[in-house]
Structure formats: structure tokens, C-alpha cells
Here is the input.
Amino acid sequence: MTVEEFEEFYARSAARLTGQLYVMLGDLHEAQDVVQEAFVKGWSRRRQLDRDGQPEAWIRTVAWRLAASRWRGRRRTAEAWTQAGPPPHVEGPGPDSVALVEALRELPPKQRRTLTLHYVCDLSVEQIAGETGLSASTVKTHLVRGRAALSHRLQDPRTEEAPDV
Here is the structure.
């Protein structure tokens, strides 16, 4: 099946398959999701779909299996919640955390990622370099520049306004 044939097949059958799965599942959004995901899987197998001669049946079967897999996952999750109980209550972030996140958002993405990996994830410069593909010297540069930028953004305005004695 060529790209054009697959696109035509999709245009011709997606709505019909979604309707069929909706009737089977009883949930329109779930039907739309699994049909779309089945078409994505079918895209990489479009030559096989053409040989089998029943591409619609293949998509419908894959969509049904995806829905069944989701049900099993939800059931296991529900069972785990029942066995473990609700998670413990966790307080929301304090004003300092909110201020830090806001200040980090103003940094370039690479600096933000580097600072987070170093200070939040507690990774060394070498570990960050390995994970990000940056050189160790670039990681160090991002750390220095990021700390300098944060120091300006996180200054306590009360200390800046203190009168000289």
C-alpha cells in the first residue's frame, strides 16, 4: 500500500471504524484514541495491510486489542490502589519553591535542564554530560551562567530596600 493509498484508506474508513469501536466500547473518546493508535501502528505495516487484503479488519482488531490492554491496565491500577490505599498527603510547594520555578522558567532551556540535573537530581558534571551529550566544560558553563542568572532573579527585595545605617 503506497502512502497515497494509505491516506485514502484512512479517509475512507476512519470514521466508520471509530463508529464501530464506539458501539463496541461504549466510549467515544476511547474509540477515537484506539482507532488513531491502530492507524499509527498500521502506518508502519501498510505493505502488510495490502497483502492481507483486509486492512479494515486489521485496524479494527488492533484497536480492540489496544482497548482491552487499556482495560487491563486500569484494572491493575485500581487493584493496586485498593491494596496500597490512598497516597499520603503531601503539602504543596512553598513560596520559595514557586519563586525558584518561576526564576528557572526565565532561563534558557539548556541552563534550566543543567541546573535541575545538578541540584535537584544530584548528578555530577560528568553524569550530566553523559546524559545530555554536552561536554563537561559546557555543563560547567551552563551551571555558572545559570547560577549567576538565578542570583539576580532570586534576590530578596527586602534586603535590597534596607536603609544604610
